[in-house]
Amino acid sequence: MDILEHINAVQREVSRTGETVTVLMRRSYQAEPAEVWDALTDPERMRRWFMPVTGDLKVGGSFQLEGNAGGDILECDPPKSFKVTFGGPNSLLELRLLPGAGSSTELELEHSMGEAPAPGGSGALWVGPGWDGALLGLALYVTGELPADTDPVQMADSPEVIDYNEQSVRAWIEAIRASGTTTEEDLLSAAKISLSQYAPDAEL
């Protein structure tokens, strides 16, 4: 896996409105929108690149990711977009799919946190690297690079993915810096905590 190629394939933005911090990510996938949508919403396929999901998977229903967050399904417009709460009512996640050049798909992921876990835009370091890992898994899956017997949880603990996580955290540090949404002191404090979670042996 070319770690820097996958890191650079993602556009990352951080913004802040009052106490709400939003991360916006964009990535292209070499697959039709219908294929990407199916990989994002079919529980059997999701477990192969992301994690198991259960629930009443329709508007008005709820979902639960195994060992992770759950939420309510607010909107769904196949195969274009869906919007859910993620881990709490003030945490909103929206995914949008747009047709790209040829048979590709442009994916936008927007996660807004009304109660950010760190001051200002530095709260993006709690969620951005995790979503980077998800977008990586999706990319490997839709291009057929993930073996059928891959366990995404075990893969997330592999040295290669931990190296990827470190580069992801560093990319988010730069995105937050560019946004001007927090102080350098708060940014570095959050970055140390983020690295301890995503790449424990790495240092700033």
Automatic annotation (TrEMBL):
<comment type="similarity">
    <text>Belongs to the AHA1 family.</text>
</comment>
<dbReference type="InterPro" id="IPR013538">
    <property type="entry name" value="ASHA1/2-like_C"/>
</dbReference>
<dbReference type="InterPro" id="IPR023393">
    <property type="entry name" value="START-like_dom_sf"/>
</dbReference>
<protein>
    <submittedName>
        <fullName>SRPBCC family protein</fullName>
    </submittedName>
</protein>
<feature type="domain" description="Activator of Hsp90 ATPase homologue 1/2-like C-terminal">
    <location>
        <begin position="31"/>
        <end position="139"/>
    </location>
</feature>
<dbReference type="Pfam" id="PF08327">
    <property type="entry name" value="AHSA1"/>
</dbReference>
